[in-house]
Each structure stands twice: as C-alpha cells, then as structure tokens.
Amino acid sequence: MLAWTRVHECPLNILGVRCDVQLRGSKQDDGAPWMTLTRLRVERPIGTRAIAMWVGRLFVVRDAEDFEVEACVALARLAAPEVSRTSWRKALGGDIENPERKLVVAEAEAGVVGYGRARLFEPGSDAPRDTAPRGYYLMGLFVRPDLRRAGVGAALTETRLRWISEGAEEAWFFANAHNSASIALHRGFGFEEVTRQFSFPGLAFEGGEGILFRLGLRSVVSVL
Ligand SMILES: CC(C)(COP(=O)(O)OP(=O)(O)OC[C@H]1O[C@@H](n2cnc3c(N)ncnc32)[C@H](O)[C@@H]1OP(=O)(O)O)[C@@H](O)C(=O)NCCC(=O)NCCS
C-alpha cells in the first residue's frame, strides 16, 4: 500500500547534457520512502554508464532567486572571509536585480552547492590605459569544497556562457595564475590567454599575477 505518491519534473544537467527528468516520490505505509526515476529525456545521446554514475549526484543549475542570496553569501564567505556579509549580500543581490548581471546557482539535495556570477563591464572614462576591455565577464565561481570535481563548476560556467552568448560574441574571464583548477576549467571551454598586463577596478591578485582570458562565442555556441 502507498501512503502517498508525488511526481516531480525538473530540468537537469548531466555531464553538460540538458535532460528532463521525472521523479516519482512515494512512501509505503510502513514509512519507507522511495524515489523512482521514471523518465529521463536527453537533449543528445549520453552513455547509460555515464548516467548511472551521475544519477546519484544530480544537481540543477538555474538563475538564483532572492531567497538564495544568503546561501550564496555563506559560500562566498568560504572563499573570501575578509569581505563582510553585508558587502557580499549587496554584490550578489545586485547581480539578481541588474539586467546586465547574472547570478546562477547549482542546487542539489544539500541545497545551494555553488554559484557563478557574470556581468557586463564598462571601463570608466578616466580608467587607466591597461584596464581590461569592455565586455561580458565571468566574474565569480565557487563550488562547495566537498562537492568539487562533479561537474558543478562546468555546468555553472556553461549556463553563464549561454546567457552571455545571447548578447555578445565574446566572453572574458580572469584568474590568478596560481589557480590551476579554474584555469583548467575555463580552458576546457576554449578560453585563451590574452595578457598578464591588465588592471580591473578593485582587483588585486595576491601572491601571483592575473591572467586575462577571452573566448570567441561564435565557435562554441553550437556546442553549448
Ligand atoms: C574552480 C572550481 C569552481 C571548480 O569547480 P568544480 O565543480 O570542482 O569543477 P568541475 O567538476 O566542473 O571541473 C570541470 C573541469 O575543470 C578542471 N578542474 C576542476 N578542478 C580541478 C583541479 N582541482 N585541478 C585540475 N583541474 C581541475 C578539470 O578539467 C575538470 O574536468 P574533469 O573533472 O573531467 O577533469 C572549484 O575548485 C572552486 O570553487 N574553487 C575555489 C574558487 C575558485 O577558485 N573559483 C574560480 C575563481 S577564477
């Protein structure tokens, strides 16, 4: 006998492939809960072994909602505890409100497990000559340490690149030269180094130099 049953449908990202999933949650009258994967429709072919490996690590990437800013602030504070909660709240909340900015989150059973930011950057008229060029930038990316190497960072990046590709033909990103994880992730999308001689308002690369990267989106948009 079933005490209750509930069907839930949601989009998912498995190894960069968009999928529509239907889950049927039910509870037996002895109290045991069941979650059955009843449908998995994939955008393009994906190996069943890959799905089997990833199905236990499902997460959804989507635009952040206002009520998720606090969860993002908590993650951001893991990355930069020296920045106050108030400053992070203002910055991340502003990403949701401003149409030239984007805040996306990765949500798993554990809640918000990562976030990614993107924005249009326009140098001021009095900006130094070496200022990074106008354009859409991938700005901040953070994944909960215990859930890394599960494709969350790549999925957050893919979603932001899709958004940028709606309004621009190139995307920019910068990283500390020591951040090999971030550089490897972005190179995987095709980002190429442009220069190490640049500045960006409010940015300092402690203990290393910054690298500015560019990605032409025309060539990659068909595979995003
Ligand atoms: C960088 C970061 C966002 C990566 O997130 P993630 O969810 O672990 O990344 P993914 O699992 O999507 O990795 C995608 C690819 O990136 C590369 N990559 C990710 N982490 C890596 C690492 N530690 N070392 C080398 N390559 C790495 C790999 O190519 C990986 O593909 P693979 O796992 O098939 O080899 C995460 O390490 C993080 O939050 N770091 C701290 C914050 C930070 O540095 N943000 C970037 C600022 S520019």
| SSE sequence, one letter per element | EEEHEHHEEEHEHEE
The major β-sheet equals: 7 strands, mixed
Beta-strand percentage range: 35-45%
CATH superfamily: Gcn5-related N-acetyltransferase (GNAT)
Determine and state the CATH class.
Alpha Beta
Instruction: Tell me the Rg in angstroms.
Output: 20 Å
By CATH, the topology is Aminopeptidase
For the termini, the CA-CA separation is: 45 Å
Annotation field: number of helices:
5
CATH architecture assignment name: 3-Layer(aba) Sandwich
> Bound compounds, please?
coenzyme A
**Count of domains:** 1
Regarding quaternary structure, what we see is single chain
Shape from CA axes?
globular
Count the E strands: 10
Written overview of the protein:
The protein is built from five helices and ten strands; from the N terminus they run E-E-E-H-E-H-H-E-E-E-H-E-H-E-E. It is an alpha+beta fold and 224 residues long. It has one domain (61-219): Gcn5-related N-acetyltransferase (GNAT) (Aminopeptidase, 3-Layer(aba) Sandwich). A seven-stranded mixed sheet has the order 4-5-6-7-8-10-9, sandwiched between helices. The chain has a three-stranded antiparallel sheet with strand order 1-2-3, with no helix packed on it. The longest helix is centred in the last third of the chain and has 14 residues, at 152-165. The radius of gyration is 20 Å and the shape is globular. Bound molecules: coenzyme A. The site of coenzyme A (COA) has 19 residues, from strand 7, helix 4 and helix 5.
Labels describing this entry:
224 residues, alpha+beta, Aminopeptidase, 7-stranded mixed beta sheet, binds coenzyme A
